[in-house]
Amino acid sequence: MGSLFANAPGPRLSASEATRLGEAVPSGAVAEVSAYRLTFSGKSVSFTVLASPSMPQENFEIAGMVDPAVVVPQGAQVTIQFVNADTDMAHGLVVTANTGAASSPMPMMAAAPAFSGAALWFLGDATSAGMHTGTLSFTATNAGTYEYLCPVPGHAEEGMAGSFVVEAN
Asked: What is the residue range of 38's domain?
């Protein structure tokens, strides 16, 4: 499926820029590398997620960590730049309230977005023109533990999932 959309229009990043953004600790965040946790304290949250930057593993990289827990305060305006760093496969990103969706072989059927704007269903393969990128923007309105995952069949089951926690004020 990724190759079908490899030449789709839309913004792209170079591999070096994607790597730089995927390894950087975002402004306003504390990275607890040993705990695989990225905690934001402000009401404006912005970070980059790379999909499968280290093939053949299917995972997400955020602030140099693989599938970390992301913690934001309730009411935060969240902006996620999503980059498909995979050269031969489509990937997507959804923040879902269904914490069992990652174990589903068809998560796109069980992974309704937890917040309006919290889904980018898929981006095509990277090409010589660069890596596809898209943006998710939403308000983390309700406190609770959610899950972020790749909705492409089988990807979340293979490890493309993590915890998204909204802490009450």
From this structure: 3-167
